[in-house]
């Protein structure tokens, strides 16, 4: 099993905070790559995903591509600690509802949480 690859908006404050939590609590090897980076752009282009940004988190795991709410639920399932509880609850919700809620947050994340001028994970 290879490393999971997570491609995210490195300028988004919400996304960066989420990624920092993942780094601390993830149960298996991961590569976390801002889509603004050269490597991020290459991965998106290589997987025909350039049209998925800037409103999506993308998870590439075992050759499968997961986007949006599906990616978030799978990422959270692999976090240690209490994170399994919200991931299990989210998995029980209708997929259409999760995608709808994800789309609202993704579309408004910069207004609600802020946006940096550069990628920040520190």
Defining key terms:
122 residues; alpha+beta; 4-stranded mixed β-sheet; 4 strands
- State the order of secondary-structure elements, H for helix, E for strand: EHEHEEHHH
Shape: globular
Strand order of the largest sheet: 2-1-3-4
Q: Give the strand tally.
A: 4
| Tally of DSSP helical segments | 5
Q: What structural class do helix, strand and pairing data support?
A: alpha+beta
Termini separation = 28 Å
What percentage of the residues does DSSP assign to strands (E)?
Answer: 5-15%
What average pLDDT do the residues reach?
Answer: 85
Oligomer: single chain
**Main sheet specs:** 4 strands, mixed
The low-confidence parts are none
**What portion of residues is helical?**
40-55%
Radius of gyration: 14 Å
How would you explain this protein's 3D organization?
The relative contact order is 0.21. This protein has helices at residues 13-25, 38-46, 68-77, 84-92, 95-113; strands at residues 4-8, 30-34, 58-61, 64-67. The protein is α+β, with helices and mostly antiparallel strands and 122 residues long. The chain starts with a strand and ends in a 9-residue tail after the last helix. The longest helix has 19 residues, at 95-113. The mean pLDDT is 85. Helix 3 packs antiparallel against helix 4 (84-92). Helix 1 links the parallel strand 1 and strand 2. A four-stranded mixed β-sheet has the order 2-1-3-4, sandwiched between helices. 49% of the residues lie in helices and 15% in strands. The chain contains five helices and four strands, in the order E-H-E-H-E-E-H-H-H.
């Amino acid at each position: 099993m290879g490393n999971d690859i997570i491609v995210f908006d490195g300028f988004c404050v919400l996304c960066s905070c989420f990624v920092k939590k993942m780094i601390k609590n993830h149960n298996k090897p991961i590569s976390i790559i801002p889509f603004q980076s050269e490597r991020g752009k290459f991965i998106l282009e290589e997987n025909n995903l350039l049209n998925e940004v800037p409103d999506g988190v993308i998870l590439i795991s075992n050759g499968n591509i997961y986007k949006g709410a599906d990616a978030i639920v799978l990422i959270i399932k692999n976090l240690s600690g209490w994170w399994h509880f919200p991931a299990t609850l989210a998995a029980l919700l209708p997929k259409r509802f999760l995608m709808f809620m994800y789309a609202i947050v993704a579309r408004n994340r910069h207004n609600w949480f802020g946006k940096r001028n550069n990628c920040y994970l520190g």
